[in-house]
Amino acid sequence: MTTPSPVIPDQMRYVSTTTAGAPDVMQMTTGPIPAFGNNDVLIKVEFAGVNRPDVAQRSGNYAPPPGASPIMGLEVSGTIVVVGAAVPQWRAGDAVCALTPGGGYAEYCAAPAAHCLPIPQGLSMLEAAGVPENFFTVWVNTFDTCKLKAGESFLVHGGSSGIGLTAIQLAKAFGATVFTTVGNDEKAAFCKSIGADHVFNYKTQEWANEIFAITQKKGVNVILDMVGGSYIERNLRSLALEGRYCFIAFLEGGKAEIDFRPLMMKRQTITGSTLRARPDAQKAAIAVSLKEKVWPLLEAKKVKPVIFKTFALAEIVEAHKLMESSAHIGKIMLKVAP
Ligand SMILES: NC(=O)c1ccc[n+]([C@@H]2O[C@H](COP(=O)([O-])OP(=O)(O)OC[C@H]3O[C@@H](n4cnc5c(N)ncnc54)[C@H](OP(=O)(O)O)[C@@H]3O)[C@@H](O)[C@H]2O)c1
């Protein structure tokens, strides 16, 4: 029996921006279904994740890489409706979640077939859409690049963010002791409940001094930092001998005055990356690692995406306002399918 080809309309609803700026530059628009290549699939989107990089893109501070969709949205879940000519591993009708090069805030989204993963068993389509951007980012920076190992200690800032909650859970699942910072006590309690060993409210506690004391002056082995700014000097002070320090964002800015001599004496490494700009082959390799090492953890409920609130696609302005308020704990999601 053959599955009938789904009827794909010519036009779709998506979120467009009139210009760079505040959330209300976004609006619902109708336009053509995205083009896709031989190695891509076309997905009928059910849910999409909202990520802080979308806020940066909307504000005019994070342009899409060359060739990527100008539409915002870096992750989706949905059903494949067409596969490119060179895609052997997927069929129309397969349910997937996907890391997208952009274009997720739309009813149809094209993504490289190798950046799609099956919906983890036991996860809803909503939850699955909240996995790709955070899990790809945390995995590649924390485990591939910084080589966090069981028995080591790990500090992630922004513990209540989508990235932070993913990092806490994965680091714990792979046997690390986890330190994190948050901006209020409710976020601190949640991070503890999800597995963080030591949580500091950066508004009331001097976290670098606390880490120094708890680790008996040794510091932590790996730091995943989205803050930068005034945290850079304190992070380096909190980093152990042969420690690895990775930047994934600079919410507080990219400048600091640093005495780098301890870095040399302690044989430390500083690195950083953005996921979106990585070549497709690197993202495909991350997808393979996630399927092998992390999908079993998701399916066993040892780690999970934390969904805070879901908006309809047409409520995108409210969704971005919530993200910019930083009142959320976990993922802000969009329901795209009617
Ligand atoms: N490099 C990459 O490949 C990559 C990929 C994805 C995301 N990222 C970055 O990772 C970060 C987290 O992303 P997300 O989508 O998970 O974000 P999110 O859920 O919006 O969380 C960001 C959180 O950071 C905390 N924060 C700490 N210091 C801050 C400051 N100075 N300004 C604003 N917020 C501050 C806020 O909570 P409290 O202040 O209350 O603690 C806020 O809720 C973002 O900066 C994003 O750009 C990087």
Main β-sheet, in a few words?
7 strands, mixed
- Our estimate of the beta-strand percent is 25-35%
CATH homologous superfamily classification of the largest domain: Medium-chain alcohol dehydrogenases, catalytic domain
The secondary structure category is: alpha/beta
What is the arithmetic mean of pLDDT?
97
- One letter per element, helices H and strands E, the order comes to EEEHEEEEHHEHEHEHEHEHEHEHE
The unreliable regions are none
Which cofactors or ions or other ligands sit in this model?
A: NADP nicotinamide-adenine-dinucleotide phosphate
Any idea of the CATH topology of the largest domain? Quinone Oxidoreductase, Chain A, domain 1
| Cα end-to-end separation | 29 Å
Number of DSSP E strands? 15
If classified by CATH, what would the architecture of the largest domain be?
A: Alpha-Beta Complex
* Percent helix range: 25-40%
CATH class of the largest domain: Alpha Beta
Indicate how many domains the architecture comprises: 2
Number of helices: 10
- The general outline is globular
Radius of gyration, in Å, reads 20 Å
